[in-house]
Design goal:
It is elongated and about 50 Å long. The termini are far apart. 32% of the residues are buried. It has four helices and no strands. It has 174 residues and is an all-alpha fold.
Length: 174
């Protein structure tokens, strides 16, 4: 049987890997818009990592989850991305570079975000603490937002459009 601590440790490793993947993707990006998006996603995953590490320590110490509003500084979750934040295809211009690595990066990231969203939903069903369930459900929603963003970016590039910037990429993580 997988314990809550085991699940949290698995989630920590996934978030650590996602943070590294998006950090590396930003270095490979061919446009400023894609670099900003990958850096923003890396920062998101870093925040998830910090939250999960703090949460794991709390569960290991006293067997209880803390409420999100009681999380240590820097460990807050962002608001899930909504499709309404994305521009219309007609709002973009220019052409991406044909050798742009973004398609491969996005393909893998889409699969990883889909897996992460499902993993958090499954973990939410398995935990007994309502605060843990709430936090894991929110993480699942956030990962679904990342998935929607990546799928939309993939479609923009597939249609020979550049990656689109959204306002969030220029804001500090809340």
């Amino acid at each position: 049987m997988v314990t809550e601590v085991d699940a949290l440790r698995l989630a920590i490793e996934k978030e650590r890997g996602a943070h590294q993947y998006y950090s590396d993707a930003a270095k490979r990006a061919t446009s400023e818009a894609s670099k900003k998006m990958f850096l923003w996603l890396a920062d998101e995953e870093k925040g998830h990592l910090q939250l999960l590490e703090s949460q794991c320590a709390a569960v290991e110490q006293n067997g209880e989850w803390f409420a999100e509003d009681k999380a240590p500084a820097g460990c807050k979750l962002s608001t899930p991305i909504e499709r309404s934040e994305f521009p219309n295809l007609s709002e973009t211009k220019d052409e991406p570079k044909p050798e742009a690595p973004e398609m491969d990066i996005l393909s893998r990231a889409i699969a990883d975000e889909r897996d992460a969203a499902q993993s958090y939903a499954d973990m939410a069903e398995a935990v007994s603490d309502p605060r843990g369930e709430e936090m894991l459900r929110k993480l699942s929603q956030i990962e679904h937002g990342h998935l929607a963003l990546l799928e939309e970016e993939y479609e923009f590039i597939r249609r020979s459009k550049p990656m689109f910037p959204i306002h969030r990429f220029t804001l500090p993580r809340n």
